[in-house]
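USER: I would love a firmer grasp of how sequence relates to backbone shape in proteins. This is the protein in question:
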Amino acid sequence: MKKIEAIIKPFKMDDVREALADIDITGMTVSEVKGFGRQKGHTELYRGAEYMVDFLPKVKIELVVKKEDVDRCIEAIMGTAQTGKIGDGKIFVMPVERVIRIRTGEEDGEAV
């Protein structure tokens, strides 16, 4: 089992969700987050004063999938979230030792 965390631009969320659904990945957790990397924020003008916006709005998608589904998930996310511009985001893949469905007690692949 693997956990995939993807940080993407908010306006790409629906496209990514549809792309994952197309490859039969339906379970995910989505959070609205803020952050920056190389993009380093931007300046905005408010009531005549310029100020720095350090943290930019992003969406974090978390998926736990079988090891054999990881590459398909990455391709689906990259294929829909990539704009070619700075700030497209990141994908992190990490191992998951155990998954348990609380309702039934099913474990690992059966619980996902």
